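User: For my dataset I need records formatted as: sequence, then structure tokens, nothing else. Please produce one.
Assistant:
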Amino acid sequence: MNFATLDVKAEHTERWNRICCFRKAKMCSFLLGMSILTFVMMSYFLTGDNKSFFLPQASFQYTELANIAELLTNRSINEELQDSEFLDNSLHTLYNVSIASLTDLIHFKLKAASRQQRQLPSLKDLAAQEPHIFSVIPKEFLPYSRNPCWFEEYKESLKTDPYKRNSYPLYSKQFRTTFEYLRKAFWNHLIHENNTHYRLRCLPYFYIIGQPKCGTTDLFERLRIHPQIRFSTIKEPHWWTRKRYGIVRLKDGVHEKYPVEDYLDLFDLATYQLQTISARSSSEGEHKWKNIIIGEASASTMWDNSAWIYFYNNSVDGEPPFMVQDFIHAVQPDAKFIALLRNPVERLYSDYLYFESTNKSAEDFHEKVIDSLQQFDSCLQHYSLRACVYDTALHMSMPVRLQLGTYVIFLKDWLTVFGREQLLILRLEDHAFNLKHTMHLVFEFLHLGPLTRQQEDLMTKNPAHNTRRLKDRNLGPMLPGTKEILKQFYWPFNQKLAELLSDVSFLWL
């Protein structure tokens, strides 16, 4: 009996100890959570109005966290097995509240931005920032070419390598073979007149400007088939946005600048072909020269103004004073631009899969999205929408490129300097669904002649280029919760985009 009594007491004591330990652990967890919350709040107060921060400021409030903590504390022991599911649901509800407040803030900022007009820099101010560009590119071009072309005096010795100092093959081995061919062909295309040597220089007639992971490579490869189109010797030269500043990769900092001559060299192959055409009978040659147009495709041109912070100090409220399109317009105001856009939610996931190198998963993407949204929200608490979209430090800090899907911000800035008729805005979804129709829209926009049946079949029946890799497809789609959060985030931007373009298909419903 004594042994039995002792066993019962021991069992009761052991069970009571387990309950006490469990409650202590729960209390410790609660205290730890409150400590972390205190640290986050202190980091916010310490940073004040500074743009940098110790931890991203979440948009939810302390009271909401306290309510969840109280609910957890009041739960009975029999419900402890459901704590994990309960906490997940609570945090999901909490972030739904958070994203709702963020979208409200975006709506407010978009409305405020619609009442403001960006002040355009003068030509004098642009020339002061980039005097070398304006000293090389003339104000007037050859009248018998649709491309902005001119003859430039070649002052180097005929024994000098014309591409010796070009930075593209100097820093990238993949371009050296191309430049070796240009080097061999160079001397045959110099024009000799009155003991002076001249070379033909051209800028592109049109640009494919964006966006990344929206089908720009596919459009580029199909347009190369058209007999009236010539492209730069390499796709994605990124000169206007990066190389002219000496940026190869933003994370690597600034290197030696690529001068405008390096960029113009990329169109030498196209100019050689123009010269070959004009070498025929003058009437036929000039007629065909007018029909040949030159293009360039860099998916960063539409959105990337990251370098401004390093070079232009007179910003207004954190917004860039000079933009890529300002300089392009200053040297060739009649240029044409093609932008391919895509549902920004799907674009972001595709961008993540393509550029992320390790540990990719739908769960990892979700965490990076939440982190990026919190950082973007923190910026919007203190700065304008444009300032946050063009914030270089924020761009480098966010683990996914969230801002690239805010298409309306970029397009409105382009439309401040170029006319609406100079921009062709397409959707990747339409391009994939009816390729032939999309290509005909491009031909009409560029004033190109019709193709033969064989050429059109070659252009439209080839498989899509630069599609998702098999190993990335095997990861499956993003999580439904991630998709819903991103749909809410991009909705205000899509609304304004559809309004700007007078096309409801850009709502991506």
